[in-house]
Every structure is written in C-alpha cells, then in structure tokens.
Amino acid sequence: MRKLLAVASLVSAWSSSALATTYTGDQLVKETQGYYIYATNGVSFMWSCSCGVTYLGGAPSDLNISPASGDPQQLTSNPMHIQACAMWDANADGLIDYNFDARWDSLLDLGAWDILCQCGQVDPGYCTSDPNHVCGISCLLNYVYDDGELTEFQIEV
User: Fold this and answer.
1) Measured between alpha carbons, how far is 70 from 76 in angstroms, rounded to an integer?
2) What is the rounded CA–CA span in Å between residue 108 and residue 9?
3) Which residues contact 146 (CB under 8 A, 6 or more apart)?
4) What's the Cα-to-Cα distance from 124 to each of 98, 107, 133, 135, rounded to whole Å?
5) What is the structure's pLDDT at 15?
6) Would the pLDDT of 132 be above 90?
7) Is the pLDDT assigned to residue 60 strictly greater than 70?
8) Where on the phi/psi map is residue 136: left (φ > 0), alpha (ψ -120 to 50), or beta?
9) How many angstroms separate the CA atoms of 20 and 5, rounded?
10) Cα–Cα distance measured from residue 145 to residue 17, given in angstroms and rounded to the nearest whole number
11) What are the backbone angles phi and psi of residue 122, rounded to the nearest 5°?
12) DSSP character string of the chain
C-alpha cells in the first residue's frame, strides 16, 4: 500500500527550499511500508530524490528487550530501501512518482522519525522509452530541475 502526502515545515539544511509537502502517519516495527512522492504541478515526472533520515526520539526509557527475541537491539541505521528503479506511477495519474519503502527492525526504533527529501523533476517531453535503462525510460538530464520543494514524512514507529 502506498501513502499519499499532504503541508509543513523546513529543516535548516535545506532552508532555501519552499514549504514542503508532509505526510504524517504511523508504522509498525518489522513491517515494510511503501511511500511515494509525486509532482504537485500535475505535469512533470519525478526524476531523482535525495533524502535524509533523522531519529527524533520518544522510545520508552524502560524498554526491556529479551536477547532471545531476535531483535537487533540497536537503532535501524537506514530504514529507507530504494529499489533499482524507484520511479513508477504509484498513484495512477499517468506521471512517474519517486517510490521507496521504509522498515524499522528494532523495538529501540520506537518513537518519531523524520524523512526529508528534495527532488528533481523533468518535463515528460524530454523523456523517451529506453529498454537499456533499469526503469525503461531515459530523460535528458540537462532538463531535470530541482523542484524547490521539500517533502517530509513524519513517521511514528
């Protein structure tokens, strides 16, 4: 299942970008959840994204995890999983979206997490079908532009 997005705050690392689209929601530990980012202009393809993941805290301080549980007993270092081709139309609007999965593997991951992404977009007119590209499409990279927005996922594990 893919989740939709909806408006939010900036992080100082990308303070020159416009207000972001924000998704806020819950996710269970040891469950893989799919997420996507779509072009808000309704015309462009999402082409590439750079994302950062931050643990904001909130795990119970009295958490007691049995060594026999199979829990790694450490924070998940990178909960984002990006497939070889992260670009496909997840929301059936005819445009390419940027897709990734997230998974947290430890009870120590309980609490708030923030995934902040800055993406590029390209006009579909500068793209062609390409059986040699992992996604089956190639675009002229000099027409890929930073969309100037941040997309934020605020996830409570």
Assistant:
1) 14
2) 26
3) 118, 119, 120
4) 14, 43, 16, 14
5) 36
6) yes
7) yes
8) left
9) 10
10) 13
11) -145, 145
12) -EE--------GGGTTSEEEEEEEEE--TT--EEEEE--TTSSPEEEEEEEEEEEEE---TT----GGG----S--S--EE--S--EE-SSSSSS-EEEEEE----GGG-SEEEEEEEEEEE-GGGEEE-TTSTTSEEE-GGG-EEEEEEEEEEEE-
CA distance linking residue 25 with residue 114, whole number of Å: 11
Contact in structure between 21 and 5 (CB atoms under 8 Å): yes
What is the mean predicted confidence (pLDDT) over 45-51? 89
Q: What is the pLDDT of residues 16-32, one digit of tens each?
A: 344 457 888 999 999 99
Question: 8 near 17, Cβ under 8 Å?
Answer: no
- Amino acid in the structure at residue 16: S
- Which residues, at least 6 apart from 20, have a Cβ–Cβ distance to it below 8 Å? 7, 8, 9, 10, 116, 149, 150, 151, 152
